[in-house]
Every structure is written in C-alpha cells, then in structure tokens.
Amino acid sequence: MWQNKAEEKRQSLFDAIPTDWILSKDISDSLPKNLTKIPLNCGILSSLDIEITEIDEIEELADRIARGRYSAVDVTTAFCKRASIAHQLVNCLAEICFVEAFERAKFLDEYFRSTGGKTLGPLHGIPISFKDQFEIKGRETAMGYIGFLGRLAERNSILVESILQLGGIIYVKTTLPQTIMAGETQSPLLGVTLNPWNRSMSSGGSSGGEGALVALKGSICGFGTDIGGSIRIPCCVNGLYGLKPSSGRISYGYVKNSFDGQESIASVIGPMTRSLKNISFLLKSILDLKPWLNDPNVCPLPWRNDLFNEGQMKPLCFGVIRFDQCSQLSPPVQRALQMSIDALEKSGHQIVEWDTTDFPQAIEMAIKLFTADGGKDVQEALNLSGEPLLKTAIVGKPEDEISVHQYWKLNAMRRDFLLKYAEKWNQSQNLTKTGRPIDGFLSPIHPLPAFPSDFPLSAGYTAVFNFLQLSLVILPITRVDLQLDREIDSYRNSTKLNEIDEVYKNFYDDPEKFENSPIGLQVVCRRFEEEKAIRMAMILENALKSSFYSE
Amino acid sequence: MWQNKAEEKRQSLFDAIPTDWILSKDISDSLPKNLTKIPLNCGILSSLDIEITEIDEIEELADRIARGRYSAVDVTTAFCKRASIAHQLVNCLAEICFVEAFERAKFLDEYFRSTGGKTLGPLHGIPISFKDQFEIKGRETAMGYIGFLGRLAERNSILVESILQLGGIIYVKTTLPQTIMAGETQSPLLGVTLNPWNRSMSSGGSSGGEGALVALKGSICGFGTDIGGSIRIPCCVNGLYGLKPSSGRISYGYVKNSFDGQESIASVIGPMTRSLKNISFLLKSILDLKPWLNDPNVCPLPWRNDLFNEGQMKPLCFGVIRFDQCSQLSPPVQRALQMSIDALEKSGHQIVEWDTTDFPQAIEMAIKLFTADGGKDVQEALNLSGEPLLKTAIVGKPEDEISVHQYWKLNAMRRDFLLKYAEKWNQSQNLTKTGRPIDGFLSPIHPLPAFPSDFPLSAGYTAVFNFLQLSLVILPITRVDLQLDREIDSYRNSTKLNEIDEVYKNFYDDPEKFENSPIGLQVVCRRFEEEKAIRMAMILENALKSSFYSE
Q1: Among partner residues A297, A372, A422, which is closest to B296 by beta-carbon distance?
Q2: Beta bridge partners of A284
Q3: Residue A282 sits in the same domain as residue A326
Q4: I need a surface site. Which of A178, B43, B374, B530 has the fewest CB within 10 A?
Q5: How much is the average pLDDT of A159-183?
Q6: Cβ pair B494, B505 in contact under 8 A
Q7: DSSP assignment of B207-251
Q8: Do residue A299 and residue B261 have CB atoms under 8 angstroms apart?
Q9: What's the pTM value of the predicted model, to 2 decimals?
Q10: Chain B neighbours among A 375-414 (CB < 8 Å)?
Q11: pLDDT digits over B69-121, tens only?
Q12: Which of these three, B293, B328, B357, is where a domain ends?
C-alpha cells in the first residue's frame, strides 16, 4: 500500500531529528498563524544557534568561520536544529542528512585546524539546502513520488558536487509537489508544506520546501528549480530573494526531473536566499568552477562584471508589466508594483508601460509543450505506487498528446516567437529616453499575496518568462498591511475575466486573511543577463529604501 | 507536373547568366575530369577578374577594396562571372541575384566615393554566397523542394542581414540535396552538383553547392549548414577550410530547414572558405555585431582571444580518432591522418589514441532522433509537388515514428551521454603529458577521398560530433597521389564490416578513380571552443608545412 510507504518515509524523517530538537507539546498544540518567531522562542536554539542562523549574508557567515569565530560544527549544529524546528512547523524537509553533515563539518574543522586557518573554499562551513530533485549519493531522490522511494542516487548532482568543492555542507533536501508541476507543495508522499508567515496558506511551489525553510532561517540558501514559476512563487510568498537564470547558466547535470528530456522549455536551477548579495556571491562562486567543463549544456560564460555594471547605469529604463491579460492584480500586489515604480522614478529612472497582448499566445504554446506527451511521464511514475495524481498539477491528459511532427512544429513556432520578441524588445529603443532599448522589466509574480493549498494556479506572470528564456531576479517589496490594503472592493467586485480570475477575486474577501504576507516582484533581463538582473534588483531595492527614508 | 516546374527553374537560372558569360560549345563539349583550371582558360574572365578571384584571403581582398585598388563593382563582376562559369561546369547555383548584387556594389562604391574613402564595414565590397536555406527578401528559398518554389522570403535571414551590415554583397545561393539530409547534392529540382576536382564524383553534401562554388573560386566564402557532416563532407571532398561551430554560436534566425523545430541535434551554420584566417576573421566580424541581441538562441560569447591563444600552447595534446567502429579508412585518408600525426609530433605536440567504442551508440541515438517523426516533415514537403524522394536521403519511415514520451526519453539519454562524455574527456588528463585533458581531437571526415552521387553515406566520423555538440574546424591535408596511394589491396581485401564498408571497399578498386581528390581532416574541440579549434587547425597546418619543407 502506498499509504504505508508514505507514512514510513514521514516517520523516518522525524526519526532523523534528535529528541532534544523536538518542539514541546505546549508549543506545537497552540501554533499562531505566523510561525516565523517560534524558532527564536521555542527554547531549542542556543543564543549561538540564533546568532548564527540570523545572519542573512553568506559572505558574513563565511567570514566569521574563516576567522575562527564559529566552527563548521557550530554552524552545522545551528542550521540542523533550526531546520528541524522548521520541519515540525511547516513540513518542509524531504531528506535529512544530519549525520553526514556533521561528519563533513568535522572534516572541514580539521582541515582548518591542520592548515593553520585555511578554508576549503568560499563556502567553507556553510550548509546549503536542496530541493528533492538533486541527487545526493546514497540517498533517495523521491521527487514527490512514492514510487521513487528506495532508489538511491549513484552520484551527486553536478551542482551538489560544486557546493562541496566550494566548501559547503549538505544537510537537508526539501519538499516539492508530486509531478513538480504545481504552484504549491503537496504530495501523497509527504503531505502539505505550509507558509511560515501564515500557516493557513501554501508555501508556494514547486520549490515550496526551500521557500519555507529559508524563510524560517533553517537555511541561509537553498537551490530550487523553475520551469513556470517554481522558484519565483515560493520566493514571493515567503519573502525571499531568488534567481531564475537562463537555461545553460547553472548545471542541471544529474538532477532528476519530471518530463525528463523535455528541452523545449527547460527547467532551470537557481538560489533562493535572504539577500541579493548572496545571489551574486553564489553565482560567481559557482561560475568560477567552470561548470561547462563538466556539463556541455552550460555555456562558458564566466561571471561578467561589465554586465553587472550595466545594471547601474543611470538612468535605467524599466518596462512595467501590469497585466498578463488573464489575472488582474489584487490591491496589495498593485501597491507593491506602484511603490516600486514611484521609488525608481524618484531615483531618476524611466518607467515605460509594456505591451503584454502577446502573453496569452506564449502561455498557450507553453501549455501545449508541457502536455505534449499526454501525461505519460507522470502516469508512469504514478503507476509505480498506485498513488493518486495531485489535483493541482499541470500535466497532460491523453487527449493532449501530439505527434513528434506536431511537437517539432510547435518548437519552431516558439523559436519564431522568441525572434519576434527580441525584435520587439530592440524596437523599444523608440520608447526610452536612454538611447537604448528597455534595460529590463518589472513584473508581478502572482496576482494574490498568498493562497492556500489545492488552489488553482495563475502562472501568466511567471511561465511567460520561462517560455522567453529570460533571466530574472526576485526580491521582496512589501507586506500586506491591514491599514494600507483595507480597500478590497475595486478588485473583488470588478469583472471576472475567467474561471481563475473569479476564484481569485472571490477568495480576496478580507485583507486579514493575508496579514503579513510578503509580496515580491521580479526584475527581468534578456537571456544570459543574470548579472544585469541582479544589479537592477539592487537598484530597485536601494530606490525603495531611500524612498522609504525620505518619506 | 513537377518536371516542368523544375525545368522552368533550371532555365531561369541559366537565363540569369549574361550571354557573354556562357561557355563556348568547344569547351563545354570536351570537359576534362578536373574542372578547376577551366575558369582561368575559358576566355570569359579578364585578367582583373582572375586576379580578384584568385585571392584566397578575405582581409587581403577587403584591404585592396578599401585602398581603392578595386571597386566593389570590379569585385562583384569578377565573382558573378566566375560563379556563372562554375554553375555551367558543376551545377552549383540555386538562386542568382546578380542584378541586386550590382545595385548593392554601386551603392557601396558611391558610399566609398562620397565619404572620401570610408568603407561600410570589414566586408565592404566582398560577395558572400549562401546555401539555399538562407532567406533573401523577395527571393525563393526552394531548399531543394519543387513544392517550395514560388514562396518568396519576407525578410532576410539574420546572418544575411549581418553580412550586409558588415558591407558584404549577396549575389548567389547554392544547391543542396532535397531533404538536406544527404551527403551528396542532388534534387529532382536542380539535378546533381558535381565535384570540380573530378566530375565523376559528387561535390559532397548537403552543402555541396557551396563546396563546389568555393573550390572553383566562384566565391571567396560561402555559408553552409551541418547537422551530420553537411559542411565537413563538401569541405573535405572539395579541398576547403570550414567551421562547424557549436549550436548557439552563429544565428540560425530565419533560416529555413528540414525538420524545422527538431532541436535535439541542432543544425548549425558555418563558413566554407579558402583559408583558416578567413574563418577567424568572419567569426570575429559576425560576433562583433552581438547577434545574441537579435536572436536569443545565440549565446552572448564575443570572440575570445584568450581561447584562441589557448590553441597555441605548446605542447598541445591531440586525441586521434582512427576508426568510427563502422567504416575503415581508405589508404589515402589513413595517409592524411598519419602525415598530420607525424607533423604534429615532429613539432613537439603529443598524440594519444582515443577510444571510440561508444561512437555507435551515439550514432544510433542520432538516427532515432532524426527519424522520430516517421518522415512526416519530408513527406509533407514532397506532397506539395508530387516529386519522388531522393534515394540517398536519411529520413524517417512511418515505422520509425515514436511518441513524444519516447522522444523525451531519447533526449534524456542523449544528455546523459554528453555528461558522461565530458567526464571521459576530463579524465583524459591521465593520458596526457600536459597536465590538462586532451586539447582537441584529430579526426577523419570520410573514409573515402571521394564518392559519386547515389552513393550510400558513412557519417560515423561526422554525425557523432553534432551529437556531442562539439566545435570543429576542417582543413585540407593532402590529395590522392597516384604514386603514394597505389597500394589498394590491404584496404580493399580486408574484412567487410557491414554493408556500407563493403560498398566502399569494393568501390576503391583503382587509385586513378580518385586522382587529385583532396583529403581533409577535422580538429575537434569542446562545445563553444571555436576559437581554440581554429588555432589548433592553424598549428596543424603550420606543422604540415614545416614538415614538408624539412623533408
């Protein structure tokens, strides 16, 4: 029975948590809506554990380890404890490797000692978490499927290997939805992963385990994947920073996936973390290893400072996306967008409205490509255990299946769309005052600030950028504010454009439902312009800060 | 009737050639086996035409134009005339745009005059030829299909546009086989393109029109395409230099193709020309235009001098490929390979034997991917006119068709093969004396020095590198020599390994059959290492020269 196997796996995760790190019944029986303060007050973390895990900057933490202030074991202890607490609060872990993590930490401490204070690399002693698609040698990669239990990885994914080479520590893998094709995180295997800011809401998906874990500071940085919004939606609803790079920038080598071999719209890997500087630091560190020598699918593009600096030209011109032609933005998301626009304009940057009338065509093609196998890949995986299919998964039905001949034609249409889009982008030079085409786009990620599990997905603001192969950075902008966001009627009572728009507007009946929910936006640049997107997100964050302090 | 349409098209090509440029009956009735001297002696070319078209180096020709020694009209006249002669000798042109070429040349001369001697770009006044997959606005792109006649291109291909932007002149498009999936150049539309060195042989394919035209010096450089050997085989049998870059280096934007949208093994574009310096000059010039801004499928990799310089490290280590596990090398090709090895070793470079036992697996996957649509794409194109399918075309039959689900699995197998191959390459560090993995491979291109039309194709030395997405450069090494290559029995009488090997060995019954046939080899580097491959080919060419002079 698949239920027994799932139960066994869940139990094994709890068994891997030392009893000292189990929340008291008092706490677990009376959890508040917002769970983010519990790690600090539950009595399990020492003041050192708190000090360590509250540091947002990887470079700062690495520097303290490198100067001997914390040992790798100290840091590993702190994160293993806080990740354990997080798992008990929101159900975010899919694999626990504490034993190996401490072994590794001891090795690093010994290396540090015996070399008179040398570090193995820029991530020496830093625990890094991974979504449960990554392979860790000897461990399961269940990927949300009960049928995949028991298959032990024969080798580490290339990125896992890179993190080790940089001195990092592997300690947990995180939850994802069955099929990976959902905007939430739920599976018959591991159940639902909750949102730490509001446990009646979903942690988003598909990288929702990472989103929840990093938000609870059980990780300083984790790696998720994104094929239609799977890094962005969890970053957005958990208040995190993230990078969805272009395919071909970070190695997907030996990372498991649904629809393995579907290359028309490639899933990509990116960090989900607590600062923009972490993103640039990690990307640079990974690229310094020349991953293209191990994975020919990675383009030999080193970290490019000139492109990073392009992101600080002044003025920049941002194209703004206000409507994906399907789902209107709820008031707090509108507010986040307008705050950002105002702050950028106040800092001297230009904003131009961007035409999105071609978005639905892109989304339609994307869905046809995702479902082109008629759902056979997913069905094959489900058949292994007999478990039921997740209701919210976006996967093909038998009637969606097309022939390879039709599939190739669809690929050609997609390519032509991308060529036309590049032309449209280049022609935006006529809209700007900079003498250049638009530098990047400012776009919402999701129409609502938060949503529960089993909720229909609107991916029109996210999947379109996968389809277009663009690089982008996510950053948190604001939170739902019961004062500022008390007006709900204009959105709620406006014309319902379609089924999802109707569900969303009906759901938005009370701002209190969304209290504290973070709202993030994405800064979108051209393919392979990750460096520029990071810098432009920094510009936006600084503009918001100075705008805040000047008010 | 498709026959009439074909006849009409052929006639229209001859009609586009001015009568003064038509070969006399004397000459055309008594053509020798080797046609390469006819342009010089047929009386059509002036001494200026000959002087201009005999220049092999684009930079030299461009320099003479830039210094006013030749006008663009002079150069256009010379190449239009010589291309016309070539077409009458070997049937290599698919589209003739002389009128537009002279208009363009006059414009360039006027620009030069009115600016007091400025050029429009580094190719100012240089005519460049294109295989008949490229789109020239207002012109047909028949692509070897009668059914495609009458469809006029709505815009220029991105590369055509780039060549114009660099100051180049568009004057002809060249023949290719129906389906483009053949190692020869033949179609019911335009017939057979012959080999200028030996008119009983094929000009190779699929870029055989370019191969023949450039060999007859009716073009200084043309652009072909390669998905399994289609640049290399014609370069090899016509004695030319060429580049098969990685996909994502030169834009394929708005270039027509068979199996359009088949992206698993991407067809790529490269120059076919008369020197290695032309290749670096052209690639650099094209990349200087930042084609990635117009085509997101192009990686933003500028010309990299550091990588070019990596190709001149000393000693280099070349892996040598002697056998693709399917077709043994005929003696002249063996000799070309051994000459190269000896010359490199004499110059202080290291040679290591490379294991190719995994080649057949790659070829098997490649064929499955190429035929995955069951031949529907080709059938659709044939149905437009009712013309018959070319016998030698490698296209799917209905029974080859697979589902999208199986296609994705095949993609995943291919990707895993590439990852394993990178690992194998990296581990070759243990075989070298350089402290690095093998720098690049030296490989044959075809087992025979030449072959006629309607001959079965052995693509085991070429298609494997498309499958592996590697970058490579072709260069001519030697020619069949009736003295050196008189021994035929060891090859001819050796065990026939399979049907093709048997056909080849039986065909190799007399060295005179192959007299004068050029033999080329390929230097293969990693994906996106075009600069290094060019430099390593230069090293090989220099080693051969100094080896020759020291004997």
Answers
A1: A422
A2: none
A3: no
A4: B43
A5: 98
A6: yes
A7: SHHHHHHHHTTS-SEEEEEESSSTTHHHHHHHT-EEEE--TTSS-
A8: no
A9: 0.97
A10: 376-377, 401-405, 407-414
A11: 999 999 999 999 999 999 999 999 999 999 999 999 999 999 999 999 999 99
A12: B293
